[in-house]
Amino acid sequence: MHKRKRILVTGGAGFLGSHLCERLVNEGNDVICVDNFYTGSKDNIIGLLNNPHFELMRHDVTFPLYVEVDEIYNLACPASPVHYQYDPVQTTKTSVHGAINMLGLAKRTGAKIFQASTSEVYGDPVVHPQHESYNGNVNPIGPRSCYDEGKRCAETLFFDYKRQHNLNIRVVRIFNTYGPRMHPNDGRVVSNFIMQALRGEAITIYGDGQQTRSFCYVDDLIEGFIRMMDANDDISGPINLGNPSEFTIKQLAEAIINLTGAKSELIKQPLPEDDPLKRQPDITIAKQQLDWQPSIDLEAGLTKTIDYFRAFVDS
Ligand code: NAD
Ligand code: UDP
User: Fold this and answer.
1) 55 — phi, psi (to 5°)?
2) How many domains does the chain have?
3) How far is residue 21's CA from residue 32's CA, in Å, rounded to a whole number?
4) For ligand 2, what atom is nearest to the CA of residue 196?
5) Ligand nearest 279 Cα, by number?
6) Full-model pTM
C-alpha cells in the first residue's frame, strides 16, 4: 500500500514548484509548500488551496524553518535572468542560506533532500553538449554570477553535507524548461516570444539569434524529478535533466510565429552580458540511472503553452 509521505516543496508557488506540488498531492502525499511569493503566486496553486493534503506557508528560505517531513524538494530561487538580477544579493542568499537551512532541516529530520540546480553551473560552455563531468566556464563577477555561483555553492553544500553528515541527497541540473504557469512577464525567452506574438508585437531577438537553447516541456521535467527522488539511495547526481533537441533562438521565434499565426516582425536587441552561446544537455546518465528521457517535442509543448498564455491576452 502507498505510504502517504510528508513532503516539503520550497518555491512551491512558482512555475515548476506548482506542477510538482500538484503531482505529489495527486499521488497521495501530504505537501507543505513554502514560498515568499517573490516570483511565484497563489494563482499557480489555486487548485490545491482547498485540499486538506496541501498546506501553504509564506516563508523566506533564507530564514530557518522547523517542520517535520520525509522529503524536501528545494526549488526556491528566482529563475529568470530579469528577476534574479533585480536583487542579486538576495538571489545568492536564497541559494546559499536557503540550501544551508534546508540541509539543516534534512539533517535534523533525516529527510531525503533534492536540489533544483541548473545548466547555468556550466556557464558559457566550451564543451558541447554538456556532460555532468564538465566543470563549467562561469564568470564569478558578472551580472549572472549571483545565480550561477549561488547554485554552484549550493551544490557544494549538498555534497559536503552528504560526505560530512551522510545526508541522502539528490541533485539535478535543469536545462531551460517551459510550459503553462511560467510568469507571462518573467522575461524568459519562451514567455516573452509567446506574449509578443499573441499581442502582435515585434519579437525581441537578443544578439543575432544564433545562440542555442534546448527546451524541455514541464511535464517531462517533473517526471524526471520524481524518478530522481525515488531512485536507489546510491544515486545522488548531479544528473542533467533537459530535452537534448537544440534550437537557435531565431528558430524558436519562427516556430512560435507559425503556431500562433502571428504577423510579428523579428527585431534585434543587444545580447545581454555573459549570455551563453549554446546549451544542450547530455542526458546519458539520466537515461541509464533513471530510465528517463523527454517525450514531448517542441511543437506539442509550445501548443499547450500558447493555449495557456492566450488567457492573459484575451482578458
Ligand atoms: P519561479 O521563479 O517560477 O519559481 C521560484 C519560486 O521560488 C517562486 O515561487 C518564488 O516566489 C520562490 N522563491 C524565491 N526566493 C525565495 C525565498 N527566498 N524563499 C522562499 N521562496 C522563494 O522559477 P522556476 O522556473 O519554477 O524555477 C524553480 C527552480 O528550478 C529554481 O530553483 C530554478 O533555479 C530552477 N531551474 C529552473 C529552470 C527553468 O528553466 N525553469 C532551469 C534551471 C533551474
Ligand atoms: N532571449 C531573446 N529575447 C528575449 C528573451 C531572451 O533573444 O526576449 C534570449 C536570451 O538572450 C538567451 C535565450 O533567449 O540567449 C534564453 O534566455 P532566457 O532568459 O529564457 O534563459 P537563459 O537560458 O539565458 O537563462
Assistant:
1) -130, 130
2) 1
3) 8
4) 8
5) 2
6) 0.97
Bridge partners, 174 (sequence order)? 118, 241
- Active site (annotated) includes residue 178: no
Residues ≥6 apart with Cβ < 8 Å to 57: 32, 33, 34, 35, 67
Q: Whose CA is nearest to atom 41 of ligand 1?
A: 177
Please tell me the residue having the least CA distance from ligand 1 atom 27. Answer: 79
Q: Which of 29, 104, 36, 38 is nearest to 65 (CA)?
A: 104
In a domain, 1, yes or no: no
What local confidence, expressed as pLDDT, does residue 186 receive?
87
Task: State how far the Cα of 189 lies from the Cα of 78, in Å rounded to an integer.
Answer: 15
CATH number of the domain at 83, please: 3.40.50.720
Q: Which ligand is nearest to the CA of 33?
A: 1
Give me the domain span that covers residue 156.
6-178+217-244+278-295
Q: Which pLDDT value is given to residue 1?
A: 54
DSSP run (H or E) holding 290: helix 284-290
* pLDDT means over runs of 10, the chain (315 residues): 89 98 98 98 97 98 98 97 96 98 98 98 94 97 97 98 98 98 92 96 96 97 98 97 97 97 95 91 98 98 97 78
151 lines ligand 2 (CB under 6 A): no
